[in-house]
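Provenance

Sequences were taken from public entries as deposited. Structures were produced by running a predictor on each sequence independently, with no templates supplied. The record for Flippase from candidate division WOR-3 bacterium is shown for reference.
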Amino acid sequence: MIKRLSKNFFSLILGEGLSHLIGFIVNAYIARILGVEGFGIINYSLAFLTYLLLFSTMGLPTLGTREVARDHNNMRIIGEITGTRFFLTITLYIIFLLSLLIIPGNPVIKKIIFLYILTSIPYVFYLEFVFQAREEMEYVAGAKIIQYLSYFIIILIFLKNKNQIFSVPISFLGSYIIATLFLLIFFIQKYKKIYLSFDPLKSYQILLTALPIGFATIIYQALINLPVICLGVFHSEKEVGLFSAGFKIILLLLIVERAFYYLLFPIFSKQDQKKIGKSLAFFSQLILSITFLITIIGLIFAKNIITMIYGADFAPGSGILRILLLYFMIAPLNTIWGYGLIALNQEKKFFNVILLIALSNLILISILGYLLKGIGVAMALFISELFGLLIMKRNLNSVVYFNLFSSSEFKDFKDLLKE
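Predicted structure for Flippase:
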């Protein structure tokens, strides 16, 4: 188990790190070629695809990961998840398409949105959840790297000036088709065929189970944008810039959170309650040790980090970064514990906690953001995340008990590592 965990963790860190690096470079290239206005159009149009994907997945891949982790040969659930996603995607695609045709607007922007939302169709068959469930993270990482690398290569070939703006969404679509084919090739090698199933009653039942996860994801995405919106409404663009500078660093550091989610969720999903309790305790201590160390280093060198990345003008944002680092220290725990609830078939409890975090976030960000600007928003994020952590732990302990600070968990975990 140690060898498998190490291999998977390395694959995920490599995949996330390289894909983010390539993504940063390609976005910088697009921005330079298209200019501020063109880059704004691209990001505006891409937002429509983001929302389409949010509502067309609705927690289904997470549900699929849990079920396939329990039985790798469960072709029925793979087919039903994919079939339900396909139905949702086509339905929402038609709605988006009709809206583009009916609602007046800039024809160039409407064409770019149309090209972007086409990506939702191959994304249905981007079967990442199957490989995550099988704990074959080299395929998950490989698909991410291939998608970003092919996107970059196609962009370099076809985007030479501002008039070629349509090549950006076309390149994005092409990159997802290539990455999807990569995963499908290995999927067919393992399962011999692609199974697509759609039964209205079964799809309704599956969707009903996945809805709490889907709504929680939508709420989470809304929370990410809430601090910037609040500062933009109450204060100046400068405050938005200072907060955003620190928050983007935190989002980069949260690669740790994503890596542990991909790594641990399939493990939790196939364990019984006793083993999940031991796993949660051990990995919680491990994650907290990592984020604590990063936080301490960040707190000491916050000003140096901000000025090195953004320049001396952003030095006042070092205080915001320090508070956001406290948020970073505990946020991965909340994610892992939340997916622990999902692994235990407690989707509704997971959603209820996320809803409470969202409400506390909304209230605190509005009050503290108005009174203390960027510092206040950062404080609000940390306080609401800490509140959510306590509630999440309480809900998790109602199903399976574990002690976060017990040293005996390291000894108990030795038996699990032999699996």
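Residues 304 and 315 are 8 Å apart (CA to CA).
Residues 237-417 form one domain.
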